[in-house]
Specification:
alpha+beta; Nucleoside Triphosphate Pyrophosphohydrolase; 133 residues; 2 helices; seven-stranded mixed β-sheet; two-stranded antiparallel ribbon; single chain
């Protein structure tokens, strides 16, 4: 039996592009990835995803759809639940945890230093979006 996720991230999609962030601090400092973070006591994994995006980017996401789970870290100590959504609002304002951010076409990922297998994650995320309209 797999353990429950203890972190969440979200692929936020607009007009075929996904919002990536460049982390300012460890873990994954200076790598491009999806916004997200660790689960806090008493919240669901969906609540974690929504809170982290709000804290990091000042965006309110709705209807996050589950994409997959991925273990990260040397001992797999991050069990990440990955979501995707096109439903968000707010004025994007990055927190100090974020060195940079950009909307990117997934085909341009090759030019960036990203967290492991981000291309696979995004391919699955876009598949989930396509299935759900």
């Amino acid at each position: 039996m797999s353990e429950l996720p203890n972190a969440a991230s979200v692929a936020i999609v607009r007009e075929g592009k996904v919002l990536l962030i460049k982390r300012a601090y460890a873990p994954y400092q200076h790598l491009w990835t999806l916004p997200g973070g660790r689960l806090e006591p008493g919240e669901s994994i969906e609540q974690c995803a929504i809170r982290e995006v709000l804290e990091e980017l000042n965006l309110t996401i709705r209807n996050p759809r589950p994409v997959m789970q991925q273990s990260l870290g040397r001992e797999g100590n991050f069990r990440l639940a990955i979501f995707v959504t096109k439903d968000f609002s707010g004025m994007l304002r990055a927190s100090d945890e974020i060195e940079d951010h950009k909307w990117i076409d997934p085909s341009a990922l090759i030019a960036l230093r990203t967290t492991s297998r981000l291309d696979d994650v995004l391919a699955k995320a876009f598949t989930v979006l396509a299935q759900n309209g």
